[in-house]
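ugh ok fine here u go
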Amino acid sequence: MSSLWRSRYFVAGALLLLIGTGPLFTVILLARLGLTRDPNPNPVGLGILAFLTFLPSVFLMVLGFLTWRRREP
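structure:
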């Protein structure tokens, strides 16, 4: 499984997923913990970023997994 992280497609997909959805989940977590002034923030821009990056990142991760499985005996 550690050799899966050598697949450039898989790593690119994982980074895209982290960069695209991470800020939204951070805002949600901070609001849930009460660390923001607004208890119900409306991060529309971060939601759009997560929406636009989620499917491409999953596609890249699946592509990386399939190419990894093809190379492994």
